[in-house]
Write the structure tokens for this entry.
Amino acid sequence: MPCVQLTALEDHQALDNLQGVNSALVTGAASGLGREIALDLARRGWRLVLPVRTATRAHDVVAAVRTMGAPAPLVVECDLSDHVAVRRMCRTVAGEGRLDLVVNNAAVGGGADPALRETNAAGVELRMAVNAITPHLIARELSGALTSAGRIVQVGSMGQLPLDLDDLNHERDYAGIRAYCRSKVALVMSAIELARDGVPVNVVHPAREMPTPMVIEGGFPIASTLDDGTLAVLRVALDSELADVRGAYFHRFERAQPHEQALDAHARGRVVAWIEDRVA
């Protein structure tokens, strides 16, 4: 099931009744950092749009939002590794009303078995599919649905490794954590190119290892809290001083230099062309 109609679970609230309410789409909001970002926005009175694989994964977030008296979240079922479904989800969301913010937080980590190469249904390596291609596609498709001051934040990582431009689908000498780190360089490349086309998008490394399912699965020691990461993401999302900043990479609260390959126009062009070919 690639995608189903938008719903607010038990008590869908028409968007006509939400005029004047800020609206944010947050991916990966069922747990971890995405959940904390979504709940922080809900506490501020924002309406949430939550793409999740199955609606049941959003029950906990929806229940928490209800206790705050915030607008009921709108939940859309969508497999974020399926780019046909992602495009359909974006068109559905765009048809429901304007957005003020998009936070692409969902990601696939190195995996419990770092030697296991996974792909989506189209044969694209899973970390590139979810961590780089899907945020690129969502940013591209939803940029037209943003309000004039709207922003897109791609959650990146300080863990960055150069891509093999002749093996962007990671078919040789596979290692999950290496694929993850390469996908995060591709994410920065995507943001730079999207910004050149006028998309208001930036990338932020939120914090060192937080207690997220990805980090726990990978067996990494916890170094930061979810609040640490949430504050960094929301600063890039909401700080008025960054209203005109596009195509930038932030290391937590400071603008920083990404991996040097992301700044190589030739390499960036090849990677983004490859991404675009996957979603053409």
